[in-house]
Write a structure and sequence with these properties.
The chain has 298 residues and is an alpha/beta fold. It has helices at 14-26, 39-49, 65-76, 107-123, 157-161, 171-192, 218-227, 240-252, 279-297; strands at 4-9, 30-36, 55-59, 83-88, 127-136, 197-203, 263-265, 268-270.
């Protein structure tokens, strides 16, 4: 019998789908809400999961604050079991120019951080304690990891939301900076919440075959799809299924009861980047995010 609900963003494919699969298999009491932009693909994902009675597809476009609000309102009226987990997983990496959300915010920042900020803020009152929030980040947020991606550049959240031309040239840097924002947000949320809700950040490792390379040039997409999977024997390279299983474990396993404010590489808590512990950056990100959402509501 379903007695608790987990919301997973970006659950129609990749890491989100594999997290849902592992969560459903690990504990029969979970009901999973697949929060997806394309409900058709969400329905296909439910078919792959093979547990239609334990899954609900709900539309949400993280690039649209209005869509996030509709999602939270729909969830409140859904009659589903109590909300015990939110997995902020969905992400984009835009490298071919600069794209904007419907409210004029740079797309990578808008989806990877601001949309999830809005979602969590809208659902805090729905969480039934004890509950867990997992924010999916990436090792690319940490320059010391030497991932081959450009180092993050956090000047201010306002600059990330509305970059000047010289700040927006490198889409890969926008991505790594958004992943830094994920960790900053997770730590600040942990500091602001009381007992009963844990918040942790998660590094899934390099996952060849995930959808993050969809905006890369053709040759790089081919490398990402066909060559990198052969490198899974290397440290930090994982299949989406393995990382999905780790993420579901952080959502569900009793070993992590009460564990909060951590950054996990797989199932191992490690130090995140030096910048991720900067309280000034975290406060700037939080307050700017609140202002951006307040402006979007008007």
């Amino acid at each position: 019998m379903n007695t608790k609900t987990a919301i997973i963003t970006g659950a129609s494919s990749g890491l989100g789908l594999e997290c849902a699969r592992a969560l459903l298999r690990s504990d029969p009491s979970w009901h999973v809400v697949l929060a997806v932009r394309d409900t058709g693909r969400g329905a296909e994902a439910v078919g792959q999961l093979g547990e239609p009675q334990r899954c609900t597809v709900m539309r949400m476009d993280l690039a649209s604050p209005a869509s996030v609000r509709v999602f939270t309102e729909t969830f409140r009226g859904s009659g589903l079991p109590p909300l015990r987990a939110i997995v902020c997983n969905a992400g984009v990496q835009v490298v071919s120019g600069t794209a904007l959300t419907e409210d004029g915010v740079e797309m990578t920042f808008g989806v990877n951080h601001l949309g999830h900020f809005a979602l969590v803020q809208g659902l805090l009152g729905e969480l039934a304690h004890p509950a867990r929030i997992l924010v999916v980040s990436s090792g690319t947020h940490d320059p010391s990891r030497h991932t081959g991606m450009p180092d993050p550049l956090y000047t201010s959240a306002a600059d990330l939301a509305h970059p000047r031309a010289e700040q927006s040239a490198d889409g890969r840097r926008r991505y790594t900076t958004s992943k830094l924002c994920n960790v900053l947000f997770g730590y600040e949320l942990n500091r602001r919440l009381g007992d009963g809700v844990t918040v942790n950040a998660f590094d899934p490792g390099l996952m060849p075959g995930s959808g993050l390379a969809r905006d890369y040039p053709p040759l790089q997409r081919l490398v990402w799809r066909y060559l990198l999977p052969a490198l899974r024997v290397l440290p930090g390279v994982r299949s989406t299924r393995t990382s999905g299983r780790y993420l579901a474990t952080l959502v569900n396993d009793a070993r992590f009861d009460g564990v909060s404010g951590e950054y996990f590489d797989g199932l191992r808590p490690i130090r995140s980047s030096a910048d991720s512990y900067d309280r000034g950056k975290a406060l700037d990100l939080w307050e700017t995010s609140e202002r951006l959402l307040a402006h979007a509501i008007k």
